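Intended use. Records like the one below are meant for learning the mapping from a protein sequence to its folded structure. Do not use them to infer anything beyond what is encoded.
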Amino acid sequence: MNWFAQDGEQLLVMGGDKHTTMQQYPILKWYADQFSEYLSRPSSRLMVIGYSFMDQHINSILLQAWQNSHFEMFIVGPDGRDILKKVNRTYNRPIYCPEALEEITAYESTRELRSTFGGSDAVEHGKLTRFLTM
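Structure written out for the chain above:
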């Protein structure tokens, strides 16, 4: 990581309340604004690889942009589309809590990337390629 703030401090945003921290740095605010603006454009598509959907500031951008443009999303990860479903494991019993993000049109690939791009899964590779080139 080689990002630095104007005062020379290393710039790395981790932990809770990322949104507030990011608002303090114009470049990070600009990146978030650009992300939102691009996703809000008609016919936008987003490929998500390995994101847990646990950052509320990102999820808010995704939901707002989807409400504006109804972009399509392709989720690559072992849980596929199910990663959007939030389960509260209170008292060792899973309680499903529907999330607004589940409304987003999302395709999925649950295969490992090494098989998808390693040549052993041409069908899955084709799915990803078609999504990116629509």
